[in-house]
């Protein structure tokens, strides 16, 4: 069984040794599990959100990018109606019969997510079929870098290659992933996670056009400006946070309804301020203010990237984090307000950054529990890892880079 060439691996990963070892092990496990002598290989990265926290679901703007952690898969069509997926580290095989999607229980789990994606693909006019796949990932689970969206985009890439002759777009991938999460997970998510994983590189997204988001690749690298992106997993909260996550888009839409529109991108800050006293939910007003100001910051950061203004980029990321903490209010859960891992890790990180006089930090992803993002000067990365590891453990600190390639067949 031939694994991807070094040339192809270097294009995706920037190297061909460690990645070749991963794909060699993947191929061996796939053959052992399913008996195929041939396979196609696929990769889908996790994602980082640089600015634009919780705006996509209300038609907002985001700058996000794929990261150099990914989900990889070896797969082959099996000429049946059954999808078999073995995910490394999980004992139970994921099995879905595409002719019996109605029998899959909704509400959560990978089987439900897979069934939802197959139903979504069909609803959006694409072909589906049975296949066998062996999957491995180094994307951090439950840590705000979208391990679920990485898996979703991997499956979409497989379905696109085997059954649709490459006709599916990144937006199609994202719609399918969103449909599965909305309908089969009861999660009111937008499309940002999926789009960032699918497209690759740093990208400016505009979600105001509904199911056809606009996006523009950006020529930018923190590393070239002397900074390293560091994701810190602060520790997963014990509560089910689905209600907290869904509360943000729902409250934003609650404010939008008072303003006479469906979602906030259809109006503006001036209209919100003129009618703020008509919205009984104060938090909904604060979250709406965050939406409009965050959109402004995203536009300013895109311009700052074009102008090569690193100081402004960092200032805007810092302002975004402050807004998430104060207005969006997604740095801790009200279900257990004494557990504030994100707030604590942000405070500890800020003490470190204040001491060295450079760098910024902010909540990352959905929030409430999980992850923060830090931008640390390259010469201080090792010191920061050592410092913050005392509080969260070294295994929870991940220096990483933006990956230039999204979800692909390798």
In short:
The protein has helices at 6-13, 18-34, 110-123, 147-163, 170-184, 192-199, 242-258, 269-275, 282-306, 310-328, 341-356, 381-392, and strands at residues 40-51, 61-77, 82-87, 94-97, 131-137, 202-206, 214-217, 227-235, 360-363, 370-377, 397-400, 408-409.
Characterization of the model:
The chain has 410 residues and is of the alpha+beta class. 43% of the residues lie in helices and 20% in strands. It has 12 helices and 12 strands. Strands 1, 2, 3, 4, 5, 6, 7 and 12 form an 8-stranded mixed β-sheet that branches. Strands 9-10-8-11 form a 4-stranded antiparallel β-sheet. Strand 9 and strand 10 (370-377) form a beta hairpin. Helix 5 packs antiparallel against helix 6 (192-199) and helix 7 (242-258) crosses helix 9 (282-306). It is globular and about 60 Å long.
Ordered list of secondary-structure elements with their pairings:
Blueprint: H1 6-13, H2 18-34, E1 40-51, E2 61-77, E3 82-87, E4 94-97, H3 110-123, E5 131-137, H4 147-163, H5 170-184, H6 192-199, E6 202-206, E7 214-217, E8 227-235, H7 242-258, H8 269-275, H9 282-306, H10 310-328, H11 341-356, E9 360-363, E10 370-377, H12 381-392, E11 397-400, E12 408-409
Parallel strand pairs: 3-5
Antiparallel strand pairs: 1-2, 1-12, 2-5, 2-6, 3-4, 6-7, 8-10, 8-11, 9-10
Helix pairs in contact: 3-5, 4-5, 4-6, 5-6, 7-9, 9-10, 11-12
Q: Sketch the major β-sheet.
A: 8 strands, mixed
Extract low-pLDDT stretches. none
Average of pLDDT: 94
Classify the beta-strand content into a percent band.
Answer: 15-25%
Shape: globular
Q: What structural category do the secondary elements indicate?
A: alpha+beta
Number of helices: 12
Q: How many angstroms does the end-to-end distance come to?
A: 14 Å
Number of strands: 12
**String of helices and strands:** HHEEEEHEHHHEEEHHHHHEEHEE
What fraction, in percent, of the residue positions are helical?
40-55%
Tell me the radius of gyration: 21 Å
């Amino acid at each position: 069984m031939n694994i991807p060439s070094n040339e192809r691996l270097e294009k995706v990963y920037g190297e061909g040794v460690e990645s070749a070892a991963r794909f060699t092990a993947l191929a061996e496990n796939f053959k052992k599990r399913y008996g195929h002598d041939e396979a196609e290989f696929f990769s889908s990265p996790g994602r980082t959100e640089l600015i634009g926290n919780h705006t996509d679901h209300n038609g907002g703007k985001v700058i996000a990018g794929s990261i150099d952690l990914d989900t990889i898969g070896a797969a082959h069509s099996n000429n049946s109606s059954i999808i078999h997926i073995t995910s490394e580290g999980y004992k139970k095989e994921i099995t879905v019969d595409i002719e019996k999607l109605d029998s899959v229980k909704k509400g959560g789990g990978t089987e439900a997510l897979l069934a939802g994606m197959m139903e979504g693909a069909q609803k959006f006019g694409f072909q589906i079929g049975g296949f066998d796949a062996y999957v491995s990932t180094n994307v951090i689970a439950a840590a705000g870098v979208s391990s679920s969206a990485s898996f979703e985009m991997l499956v979409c890439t497989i379905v696109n290659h085997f059954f649709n002759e490459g006709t599916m777009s990144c937006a199609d991938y994202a719609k399918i992933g969103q449909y599965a999460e909305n309908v089969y997970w009861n999660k009111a998510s937008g499309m940002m996670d999926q789009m960032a994983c699918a497209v690759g590189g740093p990208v400016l997204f505009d979600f105001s056009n509904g199911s056809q988001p606009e996006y523009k690749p950006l020529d930018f690298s923190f590393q070239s400006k002397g900074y390293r992106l560091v994701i810190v997993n602060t520790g997963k909260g014990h509560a089910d946070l689905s209600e907290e996550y869904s509360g943000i888009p729902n409250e934003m839409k609650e404010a939008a309804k008072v303003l006479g529109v469906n979602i906030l991108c259809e109006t503006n800050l001036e209209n919100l301020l003129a009618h703020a006293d008509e919205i009984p939910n104060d938090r909904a007003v604060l979250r709406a203010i965050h939406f409009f100001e965050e959109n402004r910051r995203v536009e300013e950061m895109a311009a700052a990237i074009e102008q090569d203004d690193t100081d402004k980029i960092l200032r805007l990321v810092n302002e975004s984090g402050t807004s998430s903490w104060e207005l969006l209010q997604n740095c801790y859960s009200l279900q257990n307000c004494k557990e504030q891992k994100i707030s604590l890790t942000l405070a500890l990180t800020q003490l470190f950054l204040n001491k060295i006089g450079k760098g910024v930090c902010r909540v990352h992803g959905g929030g409430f529990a999980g992850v923060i993002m830090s931008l640390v000067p390259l010469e201080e990365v090792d010191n920061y890892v050592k410092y913050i590891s005392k509080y969260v453990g070294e295994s929870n600190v991940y220096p990483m880079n933006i990956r230039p390639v999204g979800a692909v067949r390798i």
